[in-house]
């Protein structure tokens, strides 16, 4: 989920990236590479346990998805499991244009 919020200094990009909770070394890696991001334990109706990683700023999201990140495989694993289950009640909130833009920019780097 990616969104925008207003702060006293202006608009900020915020969001979270759900990953499979098997991301064992994610907490240690986050504290070193993305100290502004944090991970929590949660439950997602269709798939049970997930580990949302909350972030502020697209630069932090880029760090989370950068080559070598231990979060890539757990994010992929969770996404594939969700796709196998079919559309959820949140599908109507997915913005394909934003997703395409983010992945295109990540691919260029």
What does the model show?
The structure is a single chain. Helices cover 39% and strands 28% of the residues. The protein is α+β, with helices and mostly antiparallel strands and 109 residues long. Strands 1, 2, 3, 4 and 5 form a 5-stranded antiparallel β-sheet that branches. Strand 4 (42-44) and strand 5 form a beta hairpin. The longest helix has 14 residues, at 72-85. The chain is globular.
Quick take:
The chain is 39% helix and 28% strand.
> What distance separates the N and C termini?
22 Å
Q: Helicity, in percent?
A: 25-40%
As a percent range, the share of strand residues is: 25-35%
Average pLDDT for all residues: 81
Could you list the spans in which at least 5 consecutive residues all have pLDDT below 50? none
The tally of helices reads 4
Structural class label:
alpha+beta
Report the biggest beta sheet as strand number plus sense, adding barrel if it closes.
5 strands, antiparallel
Considering the chains and any ligands shown, give keywords for the structure.
4 helices; 5 strands; 109 residues; alpha+beta; five-stranded antiparallel sheet
How is the topology of this model organized?
Blueprint: E1 2-7, E2 10-19, H1 26-33, E3 38-39, E4 42-44, E5 48-56, H2 58-65, H3 72-85, H4 96-108
Antiparallel strand pairs: 1-2, 2-5, 3-5, 4-5
